[in-house]
Specification:
By secondary structure, the protein is mainly α. The chain is 77% helix and 1% strand. α11 packs antiparallel against α14. Keywords: Cell membrane, Membrane, Transmembrane, Transmembrane helix. InterPro entries: MFS (IPR011701), MFS_dom (IPR020846), MFS_Na/Anion_cotransporter (IPR050382), MFS_trans_sf (IPR036259), Sugar_P_transporter (IPR000849). It is a multi-pass membrane protein. It is found in: Cell membrane.
């Protein structure tokens, strides 16, 4: 059935995944260039921490309004506007100098990239039946890890050969090309002329979110309801624990390799590939393929997703091992185990908003989840910078990350509960227009 109905939904997943790869190139470029920037502008470790986290400040602040706007205006226009803003911000970073101006450029980058993850989660809910949601979600979540696989060595080479500004010119050009492609190619299912009637029916009958359902109440009324739900808090707090470790690695791993293990910029870029490559594989094959296969075989949806998330975050505790070694190979092994586990927990977490959200509120639930996750992401590089500045060691940072992961596991286990759609309060949503299958039928001669 799956092969006969068509594959347009998977092309949309690839398009969204490429966007996330570029999003994270824009984050990796600063982590790789942070030591160069620190030397050129005479920055303290704490100032570097603020620069590394500044992107997440505007990104996190906008998650609630962006979630509501995604539910109201849709993925297509929100992401189009976002790509334009993040492209401009990336080019500007190459042109400015000094702590304050770089900070402002990173804040603007956060504004542009704010719709990317909750928008991809919402689009996946439109385009995919429930039984394919795991792999579809990992298509864009694994892209965040794969970006470091290709980005870290590429940017390290460019910086070594041409200087730190060249990293931002390169990623700016890539962002511009993607923006043109997204504008021309992305459509919601009801607008996609190439989507066959068979594939549209397959998507709808498989439990995809209804595309034309939007919140009837104001955005704040919707959030007021969602913030009272224990499931939402369990999901958001558990994801925050994951994101703390993820951003610790994303922002400080090259600096850790250069400062503690005394590697060159180029060598640190190559070493960075290993844990992120393993993370990409586990994200796709465990968080995506395995989850979908277990559910298709009839295993309970809640047990499968909860078990995978718990195992992944338990493996994340391997980060503690890196606190007790200065051997590059041993440290890389521990970090690879930790990132590999965290990686396959992430797409499971990102598939949950479209499974538990009341109709028309997937963007809002994803916004809450991403808000708390990125508040933890903001804290991670800043806390790491202060700890490094005062202890002259990364060991305490790895221990703190392990403790936070334990708290996250408890939130997933005891607050989230069963993974099923939450009840809808009266007058929360309304249906506008026609659904995807009806729209397909109207085009059949």
């Amino acid at each position: 059935m799956q092969n006969r109905v068509g594959n347009m939904r998977w092309w949309m997943a690839i398009l969204l995944g490429i966007g996330i790869v570029i999003n994270y190139l824009d984050r990796v470029n600063l982590s790789v260039t942070s030591v160069s920037l620190q030397k050129e502008f005479h920055l303290t470790d704490a100032q570097v921490g603020y620069i590394l986290s500044s992107f997440l400040i505007s990104y996190a602040v906008l998650q609630l309004p962006v979630g509501a706007w995604l539910d109201r205006f849709g993925v297509k226009w929100m992401n189009r506007i976002g790509v334009i803003i993040w492209t401009v911000a990336t080019f500007l970073t190459a042109l400015v100098s000094g702590f304050g101006l770089i900070l402002l450029c990173r804040l603007l980058l956060g504004v542009g990239e704010a719709p990317a993850f909750p928008g991809s989660s919402k689009a996946t809910g439109y385009w995919f039946p429930i039984k394919e949601r795991g792999l579809a979600t990992s298509a864009f979540d694994a892209a965040a890890k794969f970006s470091s696989v290709i980005g870290a060595p590429l940017i390290a080479f460019v910086v070594s050969a041409y200087g730190w500004q060249s990293a931002f010119y390169l990623t700016g050009v890539i962002s511009l090309v993607y923006g043109i492609a997204f504008w021309l190619l992305y459509r919601d299912p009801s607008e996609a002329k190439q989507l066959s009637l068979e594939e549209a029916s397959y998507i709808k009958e498989g439990g995809a979110q209804e595309e034309r359902v939007v919140p009837k109440a104001s955005g704040w009324a919707t959030y007021s309801y969602l913030f009272r739900q224990k499931k939402v808090w369990g999901l958001a707090l558990g994801f925050a624990a994951y994101n703390y470790s993820f951003y610790l690695f994303l922002t400080w791993l090259p600096g850790y390799l250069q400062k503690t293990l005394h590697m060159s910029v180029l060598k640190s870029g190559w070493y960075t590939i290993i844990p992120w490559f393993i993370a990409t594989l586990t994200d796709i094959f465990i968080g995506g393929v395995l989850v979908d296969r277990l559910i298709a075989q009839g295993h309970d949806n809640t047990k499968v997703r909860r078990t995978i998330v718990t195992i992944g975050m338990l493996l994340g505790l391997a980060v503690i091992g890196a606190a007790f070694t200065t051997n590059a190979i041993v440290a890389t092994i521990w970090i690879s185990i930790a990132l590999g586990g965290l990686a396959f927990a992430a797409p499971v977490a990102w598939s949950i908003p479209s499974l538990i959200a009341p109709k028309g509120t997937v963007g809002s639930v994803g916004g809450i989840m991403n808000l708390l996750g990125n508040l933890a992401g903001i804290a991670a590089p800043i806390v790491a910078g202060y700890i490094l500045q005062y202890t002259k060691s990364f060991a305490a940072n790895f221990l703190v990350a392990g403790a936070i992961l334990i708290l996250g596991i408890l939130c997933f286990l005891f607050l989230l509960g069963r993974i099923e759609q939450m009840p809808e309060p009266e007058n929360l949503v309304e249906v506008t227009g026609t659904d995807v299958a009806e729209n397909r039928e109207s085009r059949v001669p």
